[in-house]
Amino acid sequence: MKTTPQQRILLVDDDAGILLLFSAVLAEDGFNVVTADSMTAALHQLDQPVRFDLILTDIRLGEQSGIDLLRQIRIRKLDGYVLLMTSYPDMDSIQEALHYGAFDYLTKPVTPEILLRQVHAALAHQRLRDEKENYRRHLEAIFRSVQDAILTVDPQRCLHQYNEAARLLCDLRDTMVGQPLPEQGSACLVACREIVAQLFNDHRPVRNHSIQCVDASQSRRMLSIAASPLLDEMSAFAGAVVVIRDDTRLATLERDLRQRRQFHGMIGKSHAMQQIYGLIETLADVESTVLIRGESGTGKELVAEALHHQGRRSRQPLVSVNCSALTDTLLESELFGHVRGSFTGAIHDRNGLFQMADGGTIFLDEIGDISSAMQMRLLRVLQKKEFQRVGDTKTIRVDVRVVAATHHDLRQQVQQGLFREDLYYRLKVVEIMIPPLRERREDIPLLIEAFIERFNQRFQRGRIIQAMTDQAMAVCLRYHWPGNIRELEHAIEHAFILCQGVVLDVPHLPVELAQAVVSRQQEKNVDKDQAGLHHRHRDERQHIVQILQQHGWVVTRAAHALGCSRSTLYRRMKELGIQ
Fold first, then answer.
1. What is the pLDDT of residues 67-79, one digit of tens each?
2. Which positions ≥6 away from 529 have C-beta within 8 Å?
3. What pLDDT is attached to residue 257?
4. Phi, psi values for residue 361, rounded to 5°
5. Residue ranges of domains in the chain, CATH in brackets
6. Of 65, 72, 359, 362, whose CB neighbour count within 10 A is largest?
7. Angstrom distance (rounded) from CA 137 to CA 126
8. Rounded distance, CA 282 to CA 101, Å?
9. What are the φ/ψ torsions at residue 227 (nearest 5 degrees)?
10. Which residues lie closer than 8 Å to 192 by C-beta, 6 or more apart?
11. Which of 17, 18, 36 is nearest to 8 (CA)?
12. Quick check: 426 and 385 in contact, CB under 8 A?
């Protein structure tokens, strides 16, 4: 194996014969060899500006030793590898030499073949080390220079490394390195924890997860988070790398231009959604109760989450409860907690959801389904922000913002005596009405695009769904979506399961979508035909009346002018209601 002249070797030995022999062997193999017969001469050569790739030295150098030379090399922070030679192997000396960074040692006598093999091995190892060091330096330079926040997570899901941008954006500290990502605190770190958990579960990248958080200076920021698996040299899963981009300026511009396509997980660019985005921003830091109304599947829970994460309570808990899924007894226990023995099955004390949400937000979904007794109990909590656990006499005070939602018309329920009027007005300080999907059809393509991206990440298969055909999109745009966004999501998931290619088409959609679209079109055609017939009858009636008037209402003359018999004209006059 020949080498290039640039590879320089410093050969150090107090034996002139060894210097002559080894320098000849190495020079013959293409190395540039410089010799030194003492440690002083060797240090003189090392002080020169030209770098040596390898230093080959005897351990015994008169009154000094190769170990002393090795110490000086490390003190001067020189990069060259060191190979030691000795006629009398001494384990203590060898261990000390390896401790100071010697690559290996050779036992004299050394044959030319062994010498060249060891020299090549040392230089090959050095090249590999230099390549890894350059790679590491390049990564560190990129890590430092990128303006986006970057952090890495080890296989134990603990924070491993972060750049300066991440420290400033996420308020990271060195004491957090080696610790799991926090479950509470900074919204971006909490979101990172959830994204990393998803990535660890399926080992697939997570793209463009948008959140809004409040930084250390109490400024709101719109962030976009992406995460990818981190692989080692053997392409084995070794953690995750998370990139957080600050999209605040872009989000502000989109807000000012009323062109936001998504907001806190909600997707839509329609005028109605732009108004909802603006209303959420207005209500974010208001302590008043908010009532969210909308049909099932319109995304009421997303609005509640946006209200929480947009405001100053975002660092505190958001607790959700589906009021329609629990009986009165269970709902009361869930909301307010209970003490041991208060009812059958209460084997220990338990805090309720209001206590868990202290300092944050509680979301009461389907509030219109609770009983009259629970309405009274809840009214007292909203008025005084205090309650008692089931079976307890101690009063507990909490600082909780209440957000409620329902698909019912509570005003109508109040008129029917099914809902307390005082509770209705306590809940409806501000109302957010979410339009059904059929009233914002321009948002359907955006929602489909988002669902395609979501299911591409969820489904483990070798192909990626790229788009939907125009015919399938037309069906989705014409369908009336009684189940709203939830039904649309299920329809796209159904299409994903059936699709064997990379484009979703009409046969992949649920059958009822295409059938409903065809039925509605047929109904429109029938209505159109009936309207046309009505217009034709109206025009015919006017024409006959006009002819009758021109002939003084003499039927025989009018029939002759119309080109029909008198009996035919009488029959048509009767059918058209002409007296």
1. 778 788 777 777 6
2. none
3. 47
4. -130, 140
5. 8-141 (3.40.50.2300), 147-254 (3.30.450.20), 267-435 (3.40.50.300), 441-509 (1.10.8.60), 526-575 (no CATH)
6. 362
7. 16
8. 65
9. -140, 145
10. 151, 170, 181, 225, 227, 242, 244
11. 36
12. no
What sections of 182-339 are H helices per DSSP? 187-202, 248-256, 271-283, 300-310, 328-336
Both tokens assigned to 151: 């952090």
Query: Residue 572, exposed/middle/buried by CB under 10 A (0-12, 13-18, 19+)?
Result: middle
Give pLDDT tens digits for 475-519.
999 898 999 999 999 999 999 989 888 899 998 999 888 787 765
Query: Which residue's structure tokens are 């062994």?
Result: 114
pLDDT in tens, 523-557: 454 445 455 445 555 667 777 888 888 877 887 88
3-state class of 34 per DSSP? strand
Under 8 Å CB-to-CB from 119, ≥6 apart: which residues? 9, 26, 29, 31, 54, 56, 83
- Only one residue has tokens 């217009």, namely 535
The model's pLDDT over 252-264, given as tens digits with 9 standing for 90+, comes to 655 554 557 778 8
CA distance 165 to 144: 8
CA distance 182 to 193: 7
Shortest CA distance to 481 belongs to which of 528, 448, 503? 448
Q: In the block, which residue shows the tokens 């953690």?
A: 239
Tokens of 498: 């059936």
What's the Cα-to-Cα distance from 154 to each of 45, 138, 150, 199, 206, rounded to whole Å?
A: 45, 21, 14, 12, 17
